[in-house]
Amino acid sequence: MSIKERAICFSAKDIQKHYGATHALKGVDLEVREGEIVGLVGENGAGKSTLLKIMIGADDPDAGHMTMNGQPYEPKNPMDANRKGMGMVFQEQSLIVSLNVGQNLFFGYEKNFRKYGFINWPRMYREAQQVLEEVDVQNINPRKKVNALNFATRQMIEIAKVMNVTRHAGGAKCVILLDEPTSVLSEEETQNLFVQMRKIAARGHGVVFVSHRLDEVLEITDRIYVYKDGASVGAVETAKATEPMLYEMMVGRTTTSEYYQLDKQIKPSDEVVLEVKDLGLAGVFKDVNFKLHRGEVLGMCGVVGSGKEDICEVICGDQRPTAGEVLIRGKHTHFASPAKAREAGVLMIPKERLAEGIVRTLSVENNIAASNQELVSKGGFVSVARIRAQALRWIERLRIKTSGPKVLLMQLSGGNQQKTVFSRVLASECEILILNHPTRGVDVGAKEEIYGLIRDMMGEGKAVILLGDTLDECIGMSNRVLVMKDGLMTGEFYADANDKPSQVDVVSLMM
Known about the structure:
Blueprint: E1 8-19, E2 22-33, E3 37-41, H1 48-55, E4 63-68, E5 71-72, H2 78-83, E6 86-89, H3 101-105, E7 114-115, E8 118-119, H4 121-134, H5 151-163, E9 175-179, H6 187-202, E10 206-210, H7 214-220, E11 223-228, E12 231-237, H8 243-251, E13 272-281, E14 285-293, E15 297-301, H9 308-315, E16 323-328, E17 331-333, H10 338-343, E18 346-349, H11 353-357, H12 364-368, E19 377-378, E20 381-382, H13 384-397, H14 414-427, E21 432-436, H15 444-459, E22 463-467, H16 471-477, E23 480-485, E24 488-494, H17 503-510
Parallel strand pairs: 3-10, 3-11, 6-9, 9-10, 15-22, 15-23, 18-21, 21-22
Antiparallel strand pairs: 1-2, 1-4, 4-5, 7-8, 11-12, 13-14, 13-16, 16-17, 19-20, 23-24
């Protein structure tokens, strides 16, 4: 039976949603059939995450209607949605880090393990182990605290927790929502996730997959919905779709060979602004040597655990090296903290946006001003007018979708939060920037703008260490590429605008 002939397990029609003056959803539609994996793509602010929050019961629509397995579907909250067969992996993790893995997997379902008022913990942990094994998550003790796990492992626990919804469906068809689940996963972990998604679809359940990585969407889905500015642009069968087609539908223009704006790539100066000599961190990396020049983008490539991110943490003062030295403009330096690095003109965009990059309960304007208070001060006092003017300038320049600079950052989409982080770093006027996945969770249109800003910064004499979101991005944006493997530098490639190294050559030194 073809997918077109299968029953519809979920349908959303003409869904409307306002947040104050912002019309977030303008009558969007979505249909998921049994055994189908549906992709959902669109620029930041297109309405993808808003629709998913409505589907999981975390928000209510202003108009429109939904059905689940042919019955009206109006979830009161995420727990109610789970009971009705809808589960979701949120873009920003929802695990309770002070609890262990087993407690998180069955949070809200403890009554299933309770007898005579007491929880049968051994039984819960046995079932937790079964859930983990079903999604091929190995060597994780269900009794281990979540705060002891790395970010990527936590994401797999999130996925296992949601996949567990299908185990208690009682024969009914479920729908699993995945909002940017691969953004922090390695290639191997991403492929494992795809295996689990296919398993769920093979059991007749539906999957909705949201990703800004169009190659992933084209690889795993059966059909793709495109949203733009809160409205449905159209749906296309994946077999008939291409990246340029989706790009044009999303942003209203075709992609070009100048995606990375190679015509603006400049030749760095001979001036060395940062040098690393025999740098090491016991058990993580060793014997790392490189120079960073003014006007240069230095890309660092390597798989998770290669040591590239730890090198950047040492440079910006997050960790203390156990060997070697860091020189800033020829002067031996050790930063006791990121604040000290900031004073010396070194600043990093962190990979984990929520944990390290923003304060969600502060406004957009205050987040942008967080790393450059001296620039918005007057006579020793912070100027509200300068904070406002600075925020308005960056909101316009980076096209941050917000109804105003005073809006709380938690009210913005994930991609617009990321652009706010980028604005903060750019506004700081630091000369040496470490960009750790600066386009993570950002749509293709916004990526082009960020690439343009990076090119402009190089023209202004800044220097960048780039840990790209993809290998293609790292190569495309860099003047030189350093390759890390198992804590060692395994290669260096020059990446002139007209002579970029191939991904195959770079990967051969990473794996």
